[in-house]
Design a protein that fits this description.
7 helices, 6 strands, 207 residues, 18% strand, alpha+beta
């Protein structure tokens, strides 16, 4: 995996997982905000009820898969990351495998800090945009030191609910970071080469 994953995408995902620790749902919240806050409440309940299991990676991976992953539109994210040309040339089996491998990558990175949550708080900013099938949700993480980290969710109405299709940490987009990370392999080796690298990364992470 290239350095951009280590320095940007990975850190973005690690920090962003703290956004699931949120405030109670308000009657004034838009539907896209409600989706994020309800997920936060479910995650908080899980963490409080399973303190003794939080250092078990398999347990945390299963919980993130159940609670967080359904809030992501993985197909839209995959298409955006790979790009229209590579996605259209990929076989149905390659597309399905990329979504599986990408999901495993997100779950692994997203789970890491949950065992060591240290009191970061999140503030949902006044809703600026929820028009038709798209929404932009502005938040900021407030760390115990007083540092504030801006996080913006891009959301899409999909299957009757709102789902995240990208988010940015201090202006760094998760989708753009992965797209940059994968670009060279896609250019030189196509989808076959990218899937091979993702398999190798997954095998190293579970070995």
């Amino acid at each position: 995996m290239r350095a951009i994953f280590q320095q940007r995408c990975m850190m973005g995902l690690v920090i962003s997982c703290l956004l699931w620790f949120s405030t109670l749902v308000s009657a004034a919240d838009s539907q896209s905000v409600v989706v994020l806050k309800e997920s936060a409440q479910e995650m908080i309940h899980m963490l409080k009820a399973n303190q003794g299991k939080l250092h078990n990676p398999s347990f945390l991976h299963a919980q993130v898969r159940k609670i967080v992953l359904p809030r992501f539109d993985l197909t839209v994210m995959a298409q955006s990351i790979v790009g229209r040309n590579h996605w259209s040339r990929a076989t149905p089996a390659q597309r399905a495998e990329f979504i599986r491998q990408f999901s495993s990558l997100v779950i692994s990175v997203y789970s890491a800090p949950l065992a060591d949550y240290n009191g970061d708080q999140v503030q949902f900013m006044p809703q600026r945009s929820e028009s038709g099938s798209r929404s932009v949700v502005h938040t900021q993480i407030i760390r115990p030191t007083g540092q504030k980290i801006a996080v913006i969710y891009q959301m899409l109405q999909s299957g009757g609910t709102w789902k995240v299709y990208d988010f940015s940490i201090e202006g760094i987009s998760m989708v753009s970071s992965y797209r940059a990370q994968f670009a060279d392999v896609l250019q030189s080796q196509g989808m076959t080469g990218l899937l091979a690298e993702l398999r190798q990364h997954h095998n190293r992470s579970v070995s």
